[in-house]
Design goal:
2 copies of one chain form a homodimer. The first copy, chain A, has helices at 3-12, 19-29, 37-47, 53-66, 107-120, 136-141, and strands at 35-36, 69-73, 79-83, 91-95, 101-104, 123-134. Chain A is α+β, with helices and mostly antiparallel strands and 149 residues long. Chain A folds into 2 domains: 3-83, Arc Repressor Mutant, subunit A, CATH 1.10.10; 91-141, Dna Ligase, domain 1 (2-Layer Sandwich), CATH 3.30.1490.190. In chain A, the strands form 2 sheets. Chain A has a 3-stranded antiparallel β-sheet with strand order 1-3-2. In chain A, α2 (19-29) crosses α4 and α3 (37-47) crosses α4. Chain A starts with a helix and ends in an 8-residue tail after the last helix. The A-B interface holds A 73, 75, 77, 93, 95-96, 102, 104, 106, 108-109, 112-113, 115-117, 119-136, 139 and B 73, 75, 77, 93, 95-96, 102, 104, 106, 108-109, 112-113, 115-117, 119-136, 139. Chain A binds a DNA duplex (30 and 30 nucleotides) through residues 11, 14-21, 36-38, 50-55, 57-58, 77-79.
DNA sequence: CCCTTTTTGAAATTGAATTTCAATTTCATT
DNA sequence: AATGAAATTGAAATTCAATTTCAAAAAGGG
């Protein structure tokens, strides 16, 4: 995202554009997703040790409100953030061996969701689906350690 | 579950059968599921105010190990427990209006899961699926308050 | 009944999430 | 460029559920 577009977005919300916010956004958008706050803060602090944890926390919340970030909570309970620039909805495959998180998108899931909801008289707004298992390298290694979920 | 079967289960684990454990199990099995610890403890304390929060916590952990309870974490992040006496795997519909949690089971979901996993070279052990929306009374009332997830 | 081991429960601890508040920064307006 | 109100920052404090600690109490085999 270009700095100007961010400044515009920010000021449209009646908020102020600060160096910290710009730096955090930049680092966040240029890293792989599914990081927790401590990891994001560590990366930010490597670039600029003056930026505090709290500011990273608040900025990620802000980005979530602006639709630039999405909060995720997998089975280990930690809040993780992913950039939304890729666009649409997706779900996750999570490796219990190495912790790798793979995104997937599946249309069949959407229609299934609607069929189930109809059967129970629900009107669904969103869903969460996570598949927990072992990725092929971990299956091959047969070393299912470092489990977290 | 009959008291004797529980005593057997417990002693097979090399653990001791106590009044507290029996009371907590009894109350837990005879309530609707998806309660958090505070709620379960409140109910237990109504019957026997001497039983502490910690004991309820530890007993629910124990029941989970024994396969009598299952821990669930929905989008609000709180740990909830449900009795497993109903048997098999199921997923959840969660009303954002009134907080109601409805269980469902769907075979299509299982085959979908397998298809997705195969496509990514994963070997899946379990999944988590939650559908968030409004139940029909809440849709009708059009008062989507008390949201929690 | 005795003795060892387990369990209990209040209090302490942990750790992430969130809030507080004084100091600093932004930015619209001079 | 200077001013000042309002927003932001960041360290420290707080919250709150989850978990651990530890001394006292209870279980149950011998």
């Amino acid at each position: 995202m270009e700095p100007d577009r961010f400044k515009t977005l920010i000021s449209e919300e009646g908020l102020k554009s600060t160096r910290q916010r710009a730096e955090i956004l930049d680092i966040f958008l240029n890293s792989t997703g599914h990081r927790n706050l401590a990891e994001i803060h560590a990366r930010v602090a490597r670039m600029n040790p003056k930026i505090g944890y709290t500011t990273v926390y608040r900025t990620l919340k802000l980005l979530t409100r602006l639709g630039l970030a999405a909060e995720r909570k997998f089975a280990d309970g930690e809040t993780r953030y992913e950039p939304t620039h890729k666009g649409t909805h997706h779900d996750h495959l999570i490796c219990l061996g190495c912790g790798k998180i793979v995104e997937f998108e599946d249309d069949g899931l959407e229609s299934l969701q609607n069929r189930i909801a109809r059967g129970h008289g629900f009107r669904i707004f969103h869903h969460r689906m996570e598949l927990y298992g072992y990725c092929s390298p971990c299956v091959r290694k047969k070393t299912p350690l470092r489990r977290k979920g």
